Amino acid sequence: MASIVGRYYAMDRDNRWDRVEKAYDLMTLAQGEFQADTAVAGLQAAYARDENDEFVKATVIRAEGQADAAMEDGDTLIFMNFRADRAREITRAFVNADFDGFARKKVVNLNFVMLTEYAADIKTVVAYPPASLANTFGEWMAKNDKTQLRISETEKYAHVTFFFNGGVEEPFAGEERILINSPKVATYDLQPEMSSAELTEKIGRGDRKREVRHHHL
Q1: pTM metric for this prediction
Q2: Are 142 and 174 within 8 A, CB to CB?
Q3: What SS3 class is residue 146?
Q4: Beta strands in 22-165, from DSSP E residues, in sequence order
Q5: Is 21 helix (H, G, I), strand (E, B) or coil?
Q6: Which intervals hold domain BPG-independent PGAM N-terminal (predicted)?
Q7: Where are the domains of the chain?
Q8: CA–CA distance from 207 to each of 188, 196, 197, 204 (Å)?
Q9: CATH topology of domain 3-128
Q10: What digits encode the pLDDT tens for the residues 141-190?
């Protein structure tokens, strides 16, 4: 075990790249806010700081006298997360040559394997390629000339579009999509209503591009 860090940092899905950068630096540079001799000691220290598993700050696991365990060229990284939404950002940081979410202090040439296809634009090995799903709800609506609106905040946008369409990135014919930014707060208990007012206003507006037969939010 070389490091521990909560998904709040490593698996952000709202383009909060400052968080992702902390996890990236932890793995590529072996640099974190804290250090512990063992993973258990690191977790216990995090709990003592009132950080639960999701919010554990970047912690290097390195006993006294041990060398750094930073990633190096030629290493293999197998990302075991099967859901795409929280895996995309940090995967792009590792894989995409044109990545611009933050200035990477170290770019590592890894043998990177995604468990599933997190996004079509991420060009790396996929252990389990996507199955081809026929006649999903969105596809059926399009075939029958019915319109549909997919609307969501950033946090769940992938769910009402990509996931609901069976892993299809592009909208179907007659499918309109609206993305509303989620509030920029540390945790949503600070703004539990999130962006529901704006979302409601968008749905209730009368200037839709077309009459919508189905709303999915």
Answers
A1: 0.69
A2: yes
A3: coil
A4: 34-36, 59-61, 76-79, 111-116, 125-128, 148-153
A5: helix
A6: 1-119
A7: 3-128, 137-216
A8: 30, 19, 17, 9
A9: 3.40.1450
A10: 999 999 999 999 998 999 999 989 988 889 999 999 999 999 988 888 89
